[in-house]
Sequence to fold (183 residues):
Amino acid sequence: MAKVAREMVEATGIDVDKLLEMLVKNAAAELTTFYYYTILRANLIGLEGETIKEIAETARIEDRNHFEALVPRIYELGGKLPDDMVAFHTISACPPARLPPDPSDVTAMLTVLVEAERCAVRGYTEICTYTAGKDHRTYDLALAILNEEVEHESWFSEFLGEGPSGHFLRRGETSPFVSKFMR
Fold:
């Protein structure tokens, strides 16, 4: 634990235990989303499925990166991850992104993907709002993740015909906003 870092956050009036709960729940959501996106990606078959497979893969890898970036901050503030994977899955801030009943239904698959991203956008917006002007390090991390989650939502919602996203598939490096936390 970074003792002074925690003290500085507490001195701003933030309830660090509440913040840690938010961070751990969102870390659980990222890791479980990575897992479920692995299953979803494997089931994106046929012409329609192949069309979104690359974007789903980018979102999957970036969600894993979000988990990896959150873990150090959780421990810096004196928190920890649950010792039990089932318990960790259970406390996820977002519901599991499970396969739809008909895994060949690409529209249903996209709905699962976009709803997972919308949950993440809400979660990181909440953390940003809670830490803004008080816990600069956590705010910066949550904002970086939020930027990527907004792009993920935009990608999938565009495929659902909700309007143009204005965002393009990443080429080369994934996690352009979060990568600075993973060095």
The longest helix spans residues 46-76. DSSP finds six helices and no strands in the chain. The radius of gyration is 17 Å. Helices lie at 3-11, 16-42, 46-76, 85-90, 106-131, 136-159.
